[in-house]
């Protein structure tokens, strides 16, 4: 069984996710923790639940999703994996972090690259890697078919989609990829976004004003 624990960190109210199996083997996705209290909250949960983290994954590399990368790699002894197309996005964070008030930001470097169509092993569970650019050039999502759960990052939100006015954004591409990569999943699939509450693919197909059945093309 795949367990998903979410945390909401930093002024952007970013959702950080811990995924782990019944034996306590897990991965950390998009650690947005920056303040000491946020890092302690995440670390305490990992220790109290005896979770053995094996890898750090970024859905994409905008600042709010990578603030805790370097700390997590060091604290848990784990390597970082991102999509290669988002490497420039990750490297750029150091140049503008202080503009957002993150003067103590620590840069991170990936150890490997995620590839579309491949899988990530989370103990006894498997995550599918799906490539959904548009919000960011190297944005990926992670789908657990057995439980029907999706870590959607900033692609699809409840009643909205990721913004596409940042460098590397592409509005039409994001709409196309949501339809082909996310709306092809079962309607009951639960999507856990990078911000805000979870939703379902079926709900967004009907109600989402950007990509739902009543959306203006």
Summarize the structure.
It is built from six helices and 14 strands.
Number of helices: 6
Report strand %: 25-35%
Unreliable runs: none
CATH names the topology as: Metallo-beta-lactamase, Chain A
Protein topology:
Elements: E1 3-9, E2 14-20, E3 25-29, H1 36-48, E4 52-57, H2 63-66, H3 69-76, E5 79-83, H4 87-96, E6 112-114, E7 119-122, E8 125-131, E9 140-144, E10 149-153, E11 156-157, E12 160-161, H5 171-182, E13 190-193, E14 199-200, H6 201-207
Parallel strand pairs: 3-4, 4-5, 5-6, 10-13
Antiparallel strand pairs: 1-2, 2-3, 7-8, 8-9, 9-10, 11-12, 13-14
Explain what the structure shows.
InterPro entries: MBL_Glyoxalase_II, Metallo-B-lactamas, RibonucZ/Hydroxyglut_hydro. It comes from Algoriphagus pacificus. This is MBL fold metallo-hydrolase. With 217 residues, this protein is of the alpha/beta class. It has a single domain (3-207), classed as Metallo-beta-lactamase, Chain A, CATH 3.60.15. The chain has helices at residues 36-48, 63-66, 69-76, 87-96, 171-182, 201-207; strands spanning 3-9, 14-20, 25-29, 52-57, 79-83, 112-114, 119-122, 125-131, 140-144, 149-153, 156-157, 160-161, 190-193, 199-200. The strands form 3 sheets. A 6-stranded mixed beta sheet has the order 1-2-3-4-5-6, covered by helices on one side. Strands 7-8-9-10-13-14 form a 6-stranded mixed beta sheet. A hairpin with a 4-residue loop joins strand 1 and strand 2. The longest helix has 13 residues, at 36-48. The protein is globular and about 45 Å long. The model has no long low-confidence stretch (mean pLDDT 97).
